[in-house]
Specification:
With 380 residues, the chain is of the alpha+beta class. The chain contains 15 helices and eight strands.
């Protein structure tokens, strides 16, 4: 049989390279792709599976390719866009390796899901330190609360509340001497102090729920609500699963600040009562102390130190991941000399140095303020 006859018997073998070049891959629906984050000397993006919740980091070049996997582009299309962006050609083996990684992790349309992780136990830890999940379906619970409270989340409601909160803070802090007298008066009245401490505890619980409701407002997924204890203290917690993937900077900042905002809003009835009392009324000093303690407790959450909400807000505003640990790593390397941090871009060097100075100043300021307040209270 001639070569011509043999070719007529069946189709010619498919060139694997040609098939790979013609393939138009697409990410599976629901894959979460995060914004750029500075992590040490590198810029990274988080990629998260919509079902298993597994996440991993990729660099800017891998992110550029992944963001173009929409089912309409093949290798040649991506290569031309890649060359225009990075001034170099995307190697075919790199394209194949990246698609293999995405397929193995179940991130491409049509690929099988990875194995589901075992659900976490309802309770972890010991009597002295641990946590317990208290809500069976946290996402559904916060969804119901969000639907109930959604009319209150409109700007025409929230903006006046923010203005009222700012006016309360300015008015209460106008006379610092009254704050110390009021705090001392509150501390010497157990019948007022104990109920106020209980109020603060419930305020902290609502603080956590506020994070979850705000996350639901922006499309977040709440995975857990429970209690966490460090004997003898016990506090509620609320975990937002896709917090880092919420759309836009504003959503992340609002979710992070929602808890402190609720704490301050809950103090407004006390502030109104305080404002209506005569300055000579004996009930005014302990109310002043309550407002001072409540405002300090709420605002302290906005301090940019871990694990406070202000730390998360600063990280979002700066576009960084693990700001405090990466700062410690940078400082440790910097002590070895300039060559040890040569891989860090200029922005990273300035940012980590500035945060180290700021964090040290905040800790020193907090320690000084606390000691000064204690001395003044004891001297009265």
């Amino acid at each position: 049989m001639s070569a011509t006859d043999r070719s007529a018997v069946g189709p010619s073998p498919v060139d694997p390279s040609a098939a790979a070049r013609a393939y138009r891959p697409a990410l599976r629906p629901g894959v979460l792709v995060g914004p750029p984050l500075l992590r040490g000397p590198r810029t990274v993006h988080l990629i998260k599976h919509p079902v298993s919740g597994a996440a991993f980091e990729v660099g800017p070049k891998e992110h550029f390719v992944i963001s173009r996997l929409d089912g309409t582009r093949n290798l040649d299309d991506v290569v031309s866009e890649y060359a225009a962006r990075f001034r170099r050609r995307l190697p075919e083996e790199q394209w194949t390796r990246l698609l293999g990684l995405l397929g193995t992790r179940g991130l491409l349309a049509g690929s099988p899901d990875p194995a589901q992780p075992e659900p976490p136990p309802a309770r972890t830890g010991t009597f002295w330190k641990g946590s317990r999940r208290t809500v069976a379906d946290a996402h559904r619970t916060t969804g119901r609360l969000h639907r109930l409270l959604r009319p209150l989340l409109h700007p025409w409601v929230q903006l006046p509340l923010v203005a009222a909160v700012l006016a309360m803070i300015v008015t209460v802090f106008a006379d610092p001497s009254l704050l110390l007298d009021g705090t001392l008066d509150l501390l010497t009245r157990p019948l007022l102090l104990v109920p106020f401490a209980v109020f603060l505890w419930f305020s902290i619980c609502l603080h956590e729920l506020a994070h979850g409701i705000a996350a639901r407002h922006y499309g977040g997924v709440v995975t857990e609500i429970g209690l966490r204890w460090r004997f003898p203290a016990m506090m509620m917690y609320c975990t937002v699963d896709n917090y880092l993937f919420l759309p836009g900077l504003r959503a992340k900042l609002v979710v992070a600040a929602a808890g402190a905002h609720v704490n301050l809003v809950l103090l407004l009835p006390f502030a109104l009562w305080w404002a209506l009392l005569d300055p000579a009324d004996p009930g005014r000093p302990p109310l002043t102390g309550m407002l001072f303690v409540g405002i300090v407790q709420a605002l302290s959450n906005l301090v940019p130190l871990p694990p406070l909400d202000g730390y998360r807000m600063l990280g979002h505003a700066l576009g960084t991941a693990n700001l405090a640990p990466e700062t410690r790593t940078y400082l440790a390397l910097r002590r070895r000399g300039r060559d040890a941090v040569a891989a860090y871009p200029r922005r990273a060097r300035r940012l980590y140095t500035s945060y180290a100075v700021t964090a040290a100043a905040l800790v020193l300021l907090a320690a000084t303020g606390t000691c000064t307040a204690v001395v003044l209270l004891l001297s009265r």
